[in-house]
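User: These chains co-purify. Model them together.
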Amino acid sequence: MRADRMVLLAQAAVVLGLFLAWEAVSRLGLADPRLLPPPSLVLPKAAELLGDATFRGHLWITIKEVALAVVIAAPLGVGIGLALAESPYLGRAFKPFFHFVAAVPKSVFLPVFILLFGIGFGQKVAFGVFQALFVLVIATAAAVAAVPDELVRLARANGATRRQIWVEIHWNAMLPLILEGLRLGMIFNIAGVIFAEMYVSRAGLGQRFSTWGESFRMPELFAGVLIAAALSIIVNETLRALERRAGAWRTG
Amino acid sequence: MSLHLAEPRHTMPAPEAQRPEIEVRGITHRYETGRGQILALRDINLSIAPGRFVGLVGPSGCGKSSLLMMMAGLVRPSEGQVSVRGAPVTGPAPERIGVVFQEASLLPWRTALENVAFPLKLRGVPRAEREARAEQLLHLVGLKGFENRHPHELSGGMKQRVAIARGFCQDPPVLLMDEPFAALDEQTRMTLGDELLRIWDQYRKTVVFVTHGLTEAVYLCDEVVVLSGRPGEVLARIEIDLPRPRTWEMMATEHFGRLREQIWSLIRRQS
Amino acid sequence: MSNATAAAPARASAERWRLSPVTLRWLCLAALVAVWEVAPRAGWVPQVILAPPSAALVEGLAEWDFFASALAFTFGEILASLIFAYGLGGLLGLVIGLSPFGRRAALPLVSSIYALPLIVIYPVMTAWFGIGPASKIWFASLYGIFPVILATAAGVQLVDRKLITMARAQGASFWPMMTEVIIPAALPAVVSGLRVGGALVTVGVVVAEMLASTDGIGFLITQNRTMFRTPQVYFGILLVLVLAGGLDTLISRLERRASRWRPLQDSSHE
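Assistant: Joint model of the three components:
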């Protein structure tokens, strides 16, 4: 218990220390404050941005793109993963393909998505789906493989129905691994959507970042980066907490 | 340090006549756990003469392995001191003390030969020299032809032979063995015991041998030290006056059985 | 995998056709490539959206000099970024992994940062270092460093404690302990971190070039896209994939060498 608190304290100290160093470097003129605005300037700027209706509009577009992408990618990815894992034939035929695509750097395909879907909302969503899908497929297939065979045999020996076996064994054994895939997929999804917005877009967080960077509006840029970071940390930690809860039995 | 194999000593030194090789004085050990402090060992005093093969037995959790780790300088006791060859042990002392662990603890990325030569490598002995020496010891433990195998290609018994060869390659006067055969099956354990005695007979190192096996203890040792349950204290030191070399027929004798029974009754009362 | 209950319809039909799964996979891929080739040629899809693979190769190779010099430029940036990401990442991972407190305090922070969409700081990099190679190298190094740190720390942490005790009993001091025990034991994990890190560095450089640059393969892809020279866009993407694949093959060969002593791969050199 005491050790845990020490660790938390140390982590808080590291984060606080980073912010203080940032402030000091900027204030003492070690770095040009025009290029590295101090947090005392950036944090109020972030609050100001969140109060600004135009910025909230951009933020909302990004959130919608990310959300729609995951709503499409999650059932699709889990479905394909289940099909690959449950049918040994399909698995042998197509699992290597999915593993291959998952390992390929997908960001370079962005120009293809622009050619196919234009530069609007749909293209961002499609690119988000593309980024998130493959890791979800692989995580789901791995989750099915991780279901302990002896438990399935035991349940069958006890006369459990197929439905019961799924509810009692598969669901519990698979959930943490699928959630982990979902978390990784969300990371790729968010990064992909923001990257797509930065590349060519008329709206969204990424589009703001690019514009601010090009016009050297550093306080806005840093504030926006902090907001984007905070949002992805919230998403990541929420999914991680779910994952831990679902997998509490794993470490006992 | 001499690189030649120590001359085999065939005369058994009289235990009383010499300065003790290992001297354990007033060792008490406590450690902290989540549920408070635990007294593991209380006031252990032992002196072991050079060239003796001494067993250390006791109920599970009596701290016999901890005591061995203190003799090796790997764990610092709360109170008391261990001396080896007259000098206190304050940390690992590979020139005086060798350790053979329960798991063979071989470096998986090194061959059997390189593992045996490892102590000499740490001392900066040139490659040709240390490998010649290691080869000799590998042959002695019956692993001729396995020099270039990696540990995962060896059986459990073979790995432990490599570990024993490494202990002898290090060539310290004192060899501490922490349940070296515990992970092996009965038959391998018996064979390895015989091999160990054969090699020990050539080099006559002072051996402290921690074990769970009472038959093994009686069969191998000159003397068996029985520790009590937690906190561990010395209950008795039982002289095993069976002649050497030991043979497996001795196990069937009444005397062997009596010695074994004597140790068992001491331990049984503890648990 | 004896799963009698999951007899999917696909398997039943496949048994009728007697197709092996591997054949099916290659047939599907071949069909995909064929459709990709035929669809734009037949006019089902505008060629400006989807260039046939043959056209991508022909047009790309016709401008090979351009692509080759861009590729060399990109490769230089990747190399520089790899040196930073691997060197610094390995060192930090070693330090974090060796100290129990560092592990518990720093690792969660590092893995949180790893989960951030790091691409957002690229505009900061261009504002600071311009749109030349410096901003790419800074960004790609940062992008690739986290898996190296995490893998190294995990590798060091997972070193068998018994081996450390054994080496300590042999009187091993700091450096022999490092070179004989900790580094070889951690190496397989570290190399797999290098693999992930290498892929991220490659993507990082190319993506950065796509966003703002004056040279390099990413720049060429973007430039061709804005000019609607679709075959060249596809050819550029293909080159990036070959580059990433080549790096990955190189590192996985290293990985096999690093873990030659391990049981699974060992049968190959007997």
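Confidence is low (pLDDT under 50) at residues 1-11 of chain B.
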